[in-house]
């Protein structure tokens, strides 16, 4: 989800670059189209002038002087004059729109019988025929006077315009992308149960209303969460006081009521545990700082606590690896998972840890009846229970797994409930090796 704005930025920049390239190419083509006729007219006028000047000079000269005059004319301005023999092979004009247009304009001035070719006898230039009496001649206008040089300066300006447009597009896109990125990060924090920071509302006008609405939503959620926390904490505290008095009263019952006292004490203890879960759920763990530690240390401490409670917890530990952990929160998560395994299983619980390429996996395994696979995700939500599938234990409020799920997300991890092929349930906690930034 975090990568979406960067991908969007790359796609927008690529789109801008493609549009710029297409627009520059189209602009050059349009310019060339509208510039073609004026250039062809000017070149044709130049060619017609040279032909008429050369023809007039030959007509005005004496026949005995024409060869000398041809030699003299051929040396001026690079224009050459040759005697023509129209039985020779004459190449057709190349399929160039500019040359074709210019040739047509020359014929309009000199007559349709005028022969025009280029690069005749491998001599570069524009060849135009004319006659003086019974004699036929070629005027060869050098190529440099006919063809327009490639407009490299236009490409240079186009490159400058394209570069400036890309820089402008990047700045504009970054301006739009910055509030989008902040919005994504804030939404991610809300999704993980963390308070979202207030977003600045000085972004572009199109996103200002979205940012303002998101800030109002985050503030409303924070107020609701605070009110819920205050309500549950107050109710839990108020209920604990009469529970304590009730337990004291039960303890003071005469010995004749021992058969009743045990059940009443268990009920009171269950109620106290439910209240404790309420307090754990509303208290949250977001404020606890992280520490670099090996989760195997927490698993060893967990095994020792279970041993003191008269339970033998089997643990299989992977290699030592340090990751950022909130110790008290992770301890609460592991206690809840192992407690559920003992409550719903058949007394045999195992905990395993593994270090993989990009994550650490902790599995809590029991040998109970398991759960319907379609309800695995639902059980991670608050106040959800599946006593119909695992009905050995009737206590609890349905908050234990929700607390575990919240803590796993707070560490950037994921909690899964999986049925084991050999029977029983696996609560699999996956924690990323890299910190969740």
UniProtKB/TrEMBL annotation:
InterPro entries: 2C_sensor_his_kinase (IPR050980), HAMP_dom (IPR003660), HATPase_C_sf (IPR036890), HATPase_dom (IPR003594), His_kinase_dom (IPR005467), HisK_dim/P_dom (IPR003661), HisK_dim/P_sf (IPR036097), RisS_PPD (IPR032408). It is found in: Cell inner membrane. Its main location: membrane. The keyword Amino-acid biosynthesis does not apply. It is a multi-pass membrane protein. Its EC number is 2.7.13.3. The chain crosses the membrane at residues 12-31, 154-173. Residues 174-226 form the HAMP domain. GO terms for molecular function: ATP binding. Pfam families: HAMP, HATPase_c, HisKA, RisS_PPD. Residues 234-435 form the Histidine kinase domain. It is an enzyme of class 2 (transferase). Keywords: ATP-binding, Cell inner membrane, Cell membrane, Kinase, Membrane, Nucleotide-binding, Phosphoprotein, Transferase, Transmembrane, Transmembrane helix, Two-component regulatory system. It catalyses: ATP + protein L-histidine = ADP + protein N-phospho-L-histidine. This is histidine kinase.
